[in-house]
Structures are given as C-alpha cells and as structure tokens.
Specification:
The protein has helices spanning about 1-25, 35-45, 70-75, 75-85, 100-115, and strands at about 55, 60, 125, 130. Helix content is about 50%, strand content about 5%. The relative contact order is 0.15. By secondary structure, the chain is mainly alpha-helical. The strands form 2 sheets. Strands 1-2 form a two-stranded antiparallel ribbon. The chain has one domain (about 35-140): Orthogonal Bundle (Cytochrome Bc1 Complex, Chain D, domain 2).
Length: about 140
C-alpha cells in the first residue's frame, strides 16, 4: 500500500503543477475585449457557422481565407457588405440586414486590430516562450 500512496502523491503534485501552469499561461498576456457591437457580430459569425470555412488566427475551416486581417487588407466596408450579401465563389449569400452587416464588419475590424495572422514578427525566445507583435487594440465601445 505505501507505493500506491506514493504514486497518488506524485499524481496530485503533477496535477497541481499542471493547473497552476495553465492558469498562468491562459490568464496572462494581452487580453482581447470586444465591443458590444462586435460581440453581436461574433454571434452572427457563430450562428452562420462561418468558422466552418474561414479561420481567425488560423483556427477554423480551410475552404475560405483566414479573416484575421481581412478588414485592413480590403479596407472597403461596402465591398465587405457586398460579399456578405452576394457571396463570392463558394461562399453562400447571407442576405444580412444593414445592422447585421455593420455588426459583422465591426467584429472583423476589431479582430483585425488584435494582431497579425500569420504573425511573421513573432520571436521564439531561447526558453521556448514566443513574443508576439500586437497591433493597437482600440475598439469602439
């Protein structure tokens, strides 16, 4: 029995270290907060399952492009609204109303302001940490 207590102690110690490490990693750093309008846009993004075809920071589907920095790349809100409503190539027509289009654009705008994807300016430190280059994070409130 003493060896089972030893293994249980080791397991609990490892779980404690794992929990503390993950708490530190996932709660420190640059936090992204979206405006209410952008959060509504994110809800539309989720409702229409846009992430099944598109990515944000490389996470999502691969049928469409990564949209992390699409707002600054296109920089024409009317063009983005037209894409939402008319579709493009394999993208379906969504027929968003004016308010929904503006919320989606605000979501893409604020996501664009959070950083770069891919982040070519990232530096890998000798200790394994990655230092990222962030954009300005001023959002509409």
């Amino acid at each position: 029995m003493p060896s089972s207590i030893k293994y249980l102690t080791i397991l609990l110690s490892l779980l404690t270290v794992f929990t503390i490490y993950n708490t530190f990693v996932y709660t420190s750093g640059n936090k992204v907060t979206l405006s209410k309008k952008a959060l509504k846009g994110e809800n539309i993004w989720l409702q229409y399952n846009c992430n099944s075809c598109h990515q944000i920071y490389g996470l999502g589907g691969y049928l469409g492009p990564d949209l992390t920095n699409e707002y600054s790349r296109i920089s024409n809100e009317n063009y983005l609204k037209a894409m939402f409503n008319s579709g493009i190539k394999t993208m379906p027509q969504f027929h968003f109303n004016k308010k929904e289009s503006e919320e989606m654009i605000q979501f893409l705008k604020e996501i664009d302001q959070t950083g770069y994807s891919p982040n070519r300016a990232a530096k890998i430190e000798s200790n394994g940490w990655v230092t990222l280059k962030y954009k300005n994070s001023h959002h509409e409130r």
